[in-house]
Amino acid sequence: MIGRPSWYVATVMAIAEETANANRITLEVPGWPGNDAGQHLDVRLTAPDGYQASRSYSIASAGPSTKVELAVDKIPTGEVSPFLVDILMRRDQLEVRGPLGGWFIWQPPTNTTDARRPVQLIAGGSGIVPFISMIRSHQAAADSTVFRLLYAVRAPDDVFYKHELEQAQQGRAPLHVHFIYSRRTPPGWAVPHGRLTRDVLAAAAIPPGQHPRLFVCGSTGFTEQALSWLSELGYDTTDTRAERFGGS
Q1: What is the model's pLDDT at position 126?
Q2: What DSSP line would sit under 66-106, residue for residue?
Q3: Does one domain contain both 71 and 126?
Q4: Would you state the pLDDT for residue 248?
Q5: What's the rounded Cα separation, in Å, for the pair 150 and 196?
Q6: How far is residue 248's CA from residue 65's CA, in Å, rounded to a whole number?
Q7: Do 54 and 117 share a domain, yes or no?
Q8: What's the pLDDT score for residue 246?
Q9: Residues linked to residue 135 through DSSP beta bridges, in sequence order
């Protein structure tokens, strides 16, 4: 972990639409100590009457920078995400606490044992966000570790970081991406739409015999089902790193 968690005042530097329901938010956080790929932070909002609400969000950026990038998917019944997506404006200020989490992280391997283990990322929806920081770190290091991403989304328009994922597949440290579209596929897509299944997971993921490092991130239901299937398929789930999210 690069830094110790503390509260900081962050200024919104840029906001861009990520999907029809999500925004990419760039923050300038003076004093931010930097963060490892896969870490998260807390965002705290305070109402004029003093009421406070805070939620955790994965960080899409990594490294020793005071610029922090989030990608927030709006949960209509949430207390924080509707504000961040619909109301937040450039130059607004937020309270953030972090960096948080020391288990769900990836760093370029420093020894031959880690270097021999490929990495399998399994994401559902906005669960891709912490993996973007890992993919960026992998690319920046031109690391030779095999990286594969299985990404389940409803439709092509729901893909986060679509252009960046396309670039990473042609980058210095190539990424292999396998998309699962549950409701609608791109034109000409050879595979019918449908949810992730045990058989699809078995066919798309790095085989258990290669002892991949497994990372799973998505809704609680998605993550628990993926972990159950991985166990049935013979993967060592005691070594699997998982993050779950709910309403925010």
Answers
A1: 96
A2: SEEEEEEE--TT-SSHHIIIII--TT-EEEEEEEE-SSS-B
A3: no
A4: 61
A5: 10
A6: 26
A7: no
A8: 72
A9: none
18 close to 71: Cβ distance less than 8 angstroms = yes
Note the pLDDT of residue 175: 93
Contact status, residue 201 vs residue 228, Cβ threshold 8 Å = no
Lookup: tokens for 232:
């049935």
pTM above the 0.85 mark? Answer: yes
Last residue of a domain, one of 100, 120, 149: 100
Sheet holding 147-153, edge to edge: 175-181, 147-153, 119-124, 213-219, 241-245
Same domain, 148 and 59: no
Q: Single out the residue of 139, 184, 196, 133 nearest to residue 159, CA to CA.
A: 184
Domain count of the chain?
Answer: 2
**Structure tokens belonging to residue 141:** 């290091």
Cα end-to-end distance, the chain, whole Å = 25
Q: How far is CA 210 from CA 119, 120, 150, 236, in A?
A: 10, 11, 17, 11
Mean pLDDT by 10 residues, the chain (248 residues): 84 98 98 96 94 96 97 94 97 97 90 75 97 96 93 97 94 89 94 94 96 96 97 92 82
Residues 149 and 237 in one domain: yes
Domain assignment present for 106: no
> Which tokens sit at 148?
């594969």
